Amino acid sequence: MDAVLADPDLDAARAGDAAAFDRLVSPLRRELHAHCYRMLGSVHDADDALQDALLRAWRGIGRFEGRSTLRSWLYTVATRTCLDLADARGRRALPMDLGPSSPEPVLDDTPAEVAWLTPYPDTALAVEERESVELAFVAALQHLPGNQRAALLLFEVLGFSAAEIATTMDTSTASVNSALQRARRIVAERIPPVSQARTLAELDDARLRAVVTGYATALEQGDADRLVALLTEDVTWSMPPLPGWYAGRDAVDAFTRAVPLGACGTWRTVVTSANGQPALALYLNGPAVAQGPDDRSFRAWSITVLTLRGDRIADLTSFLGPEPFTTAGLPLVLG
């Protein structure tokens, strides 16, 4: 505590020095942003929450007495900000939250007006942090009430004690422990038994590369047989903001042949990552995006996040539209 109180930047920030405040919070921005994303399931909402939280912290820094670390205090401010925003905007969904899978290809699926989960660009995260933003985990968190979501993240991901969480959330330790018990049960029912971090660690680089580049090559070459051979029998494929989704290799095979390798056009891919998982940025040249009969450009279509089981793809989540490309720092057009 003495070291915190003696920090010259902290003293200067308390006296109204905005540059000193920025120096204090700058090393924590990335992890605070990831926390806001876990809480809210949206990069856009995480941006808003972090901005609001840091504004609240700046206005309240004069009242920070150093009884906890600055990091703990900032997480308290960020968590309370996220809880306010979650109450106002509701939870984020994936297509499988809305209804059953489609048994046949849907050629005229239209976007649904739903607050959708969005992918998280993870290039700035340390390897050990990526497990906590895996797609299934963040999606499962959206099924928790805000207090349970916050308690689980603060305890399991960030290592806060139940007593510290009780202070953060202005409640009792017994209430925190009860919230943790309920949250663990709900999340355990919705996430795979093996995390993507563990799955990827057990795959050597060559096998992982073979899966990712195999999928990319099959899509670019229009090879449905090769693409489907990479999938598990119970694979799922969803495409927010489209509400339709497909479950099982036969349904995904039929959809693949009818839509991405049938009606859409031709594809180019860029290997990337999102939510601690391998991903592909898919660019389309076809009637849906062409800006004239002579347009040869490939335009941003989706960031497709791959969830693996062993060396097969068990789930494809294709986030359609330009926003995932923008947040990932990827171009919107390939020549």
In words, what does this structure look like?
- There is one protein chain.
- The termini are far apart.
- The relative contact order is 0.12.
- Strands 1, 2, 3, 4, 5, 6 and 7 form a seven-stranded mixed β-sheet that branches.
- Helix 2 packs across helix 3 (18-25), helix 8 (146-157) crosses helix 10 and helix 9 crosses helix 10.
- The protein has 335 residues and is of the alpha+beta class.
- The protein has helices at residues 2-5, 8-14, 18-25, 29-40, 43-60, 70-89, 135-141, 146-157, 162-169, 173-188, 196-202, 205-221, 224-228, 249-263, 323-328; strands at 231-239, 242-247, 266-274, 277-285, 298-309, 312-320, 333-334.
- It is globular, with a radius of gyration of 22 Å.
- Strand 5 and strand 6 form a beta hairpin.
Fold blueprint:
Blueprint: H1 2-5, H2 8-14, H3 18-25, H4 29-40, H5 43-60, H6 70-89, H7 135-141, H8 146-157, H9 162-169, H10 173-188, H11 196-202, H12 205-221, H13 224-228, E1 231-239, E2 242-247, H14 249-263, E3 266-274, E4 277-285, E5 298-309, E6 312-320, H15 323-328, E7 333-334
Parallel strand pairs: 1-6
Antiparallel strand pairs: 1-2, 3-4, 4-5, 5-6, 5-7
Helix pairs in contact: 2-3, 4-5, 4-6, 5-6, 8-10, 9-10
